Task: structure prediction
Amino acid sequence: MQPLSVVLLQSDSRIAQSLVKSLGSSFHSVHAVRSLGELRTSIAKNRAKVVVLDIETTPISEVERLSHDFPGVSIVCTHRLPDEEMWTAALSAGAADICPSSDTRAVLTSALRNVALARGFAA
Result:
């Protein structure tokens, strides 16, 4: 089984640190980036299987582009206060889930669940 990488783009540095720590307990590596350009480069370079993306600062249209450009990557969106409308928009754009950015357990659970589902489909 190949080691799993996560790439994280989070606008709040305190939340980013918390997510890196939480995700790092279950994934081989977690790469925190500061821009969409870095995100795209890091996904390709590290062969990431999961992207955790703050949609407070990233438009939903970028979720759709990422989903199209990196079809094997599970995108877990975060937002300070996600609602049903955001959830629907994110999933329609190709995201696997949307979680409150402060809920590290939900983000980790979603990331792990979606990697497991992807592996199940590949088997």
Summary: The chain has a mean pLDDT of 91. The longest strand covers residues 74-79. The CA atoms of residues 99 and 107 lie 6 Å apart. The two ends are 12 Å apart (CA to CA).
